[in-house]
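RECORD TYPE: inverse folding
INPUT: structure tokens
STRUCTURE:
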């Protein structure tokens, strides 16, 4: 490294020494008066090339990282400072000697190594209430905002969706919903009993099972309950109750109960991002965005711990239960997968899936893109393994994660019959609108 800086210094000194002299010239022939004219004719000095400056800057950065900051100046520090000064001086001299070059003598930014075109820009979802497209980070907030906006049009349905969607503990949701259903059953079965139309908010069951649920109070108010302070026997101060209003008694509460029990959480649906590509040798090359890898900071630490444990497992015997547990943990590593289906003419059909979706979802995706969707076909994995639609296997269980290339083929017997009848399907079998939107795989 020291030799490298010496060469740079020597190059700078050589360029600043002026025109050369023949060894045969005598000292007396050198006229002092000619020196100004020679200096005037001397071309402006040229600074080091951009490549040399980039190399020197990179070398300086490496040296600065290696050197402890607490140490005093060393010989390498002196070399670095000297070279830095000389490079700066040369750059200033070049700019001042050539005004047209001002603003152009800038070290170009290094291009990012390994930059490639992503197969998809990311993982996206569709809100079932609004139809809006949401990114992976926006999907939960987008669905919640859509539910809240639904209160203005249908408060009963919106409150039911809020109960099932905003609360993550499914067991607690089920317990609270069942308790609300019992309240409504009592009112429906005993319409004349006033005590069933009153719900004490400080009741232990209400507090433990219902009050903790987001959306529960909105549901009671939407179906006609009103908060009222009522006196309590053997108690001086009144307490708060939910009381069913007179107008709400004529409503079909049993229908609200069935709607509450049958509801499911509102989830944004995964956007397939269906695309069709022309035949390409890059069919099996996938460059996936970070959305396809479900690794948070904690999971990265966990992966490091698992690698350390793997070294221990190599020297230890494992039971069948231990092996199955490890296999299940490996299957949960990916949340999404990007699949490409190679059609008979080489065209590619691409879509995004959950890693836990079944093979039937892949078959349905392909069938929706075919013009003759009634014709039977087969899908084969990269190793020639047949992916049977009847098998209840997940995509990750078939090794189709985080990306995979699947081969499409018509059923041989059916294809032979079609050819005999002169009705052979199109080479790719895709719908015309998909063929018209075909892209080139980058």
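DESIGNED SEQUENCE:
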């Amino acid at each position: 490294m020291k030799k490298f800086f010496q060469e740079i210094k020597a190059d700078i000194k050589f360029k600043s020494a002026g025109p050369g002299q023949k060894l045969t010239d005598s000292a007396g022939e050198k006229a002092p008066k000619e020196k100004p004219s020679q200096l005037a004719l001397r071309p402006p000095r040229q600074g080091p090339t951009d490549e040399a400056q980039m190399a020197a800057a990179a070398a300086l950065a490496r040296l600065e990282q290696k050197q402890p900051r607490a140490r005093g100046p060393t010989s390498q520090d002196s070399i670095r400072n000297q070279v830095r000064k000389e490079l700066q001086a040369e750059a200033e001299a070049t700019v001042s000697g050539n005004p047209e070059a001002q603003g152009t003598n800038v070290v170009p930014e290094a291009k990012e190594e390994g930059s490639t075109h992503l197969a998809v820009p990311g993982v996206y979802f569709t809100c079932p209430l609004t139809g809006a497209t949401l990114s992976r980070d926006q999907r939960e907030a987008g669905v919640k905002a859509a539910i809240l906006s639904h209160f203005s049009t249908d408060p009963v349905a919106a409150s039911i969706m809020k109960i099932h969607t905003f609360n993550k503990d499914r067991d607690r949701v089920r317990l609270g919903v069942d308790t609300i259903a019992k309240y409504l059953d009592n009112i429906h079965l005993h319409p004349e009993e006033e005590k069933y139309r009153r719900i004490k908010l400080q009741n232990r069951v209400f507090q433990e099972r219902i009050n903790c649920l987001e959306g529960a109070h909105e549901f009671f108010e939407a179906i006609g309950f009103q908060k009222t302070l009522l006196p309590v026997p053997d108690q001086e101060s009144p307490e708060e109750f939910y009381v069913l209003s007179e107008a709400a008694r004529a409503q079909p509460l049993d229908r609200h109960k069935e709607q509450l029990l049958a509801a499911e959480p509102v989830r944004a649906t995964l956007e397939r991002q269906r695309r069709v590509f022309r035949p390409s040798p890059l069919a099996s090359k996938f460059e996936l965005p970070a959305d396809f890898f479900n690794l948070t900071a904690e999971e990265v630490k966990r992966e490091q711990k698992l690698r350390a444990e793997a070294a221990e497992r190599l020297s230890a015997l494992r039971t069948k239960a231990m092996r199955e547990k490890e296999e299940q943990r490996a299957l949960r590593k990916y949340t999404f997968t990007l699949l490409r289906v190679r059609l008979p003419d080489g065209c590619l059909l691409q879509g995004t899936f959950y890693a836990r979706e079944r093979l039937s979802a892949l078959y349905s995706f392909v069938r929706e893109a075919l013009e003759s969707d009634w014709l039977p076909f087969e899908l084969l994995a990269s190793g020639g393994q047949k992916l049977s639609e009847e098998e209840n296997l997940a995509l990750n269980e078939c090794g189709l994660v985080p990306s995979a290339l699947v081969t499409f083929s018509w059923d041989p017997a059916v294809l032979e019959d079609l050819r005999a009848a002169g009705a052979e399907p199109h080479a790719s079998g895709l719908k015309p609108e998909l063929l018209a939107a075909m892209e080139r795989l980058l």
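NOTES: The longest helix spans residues 75-97.
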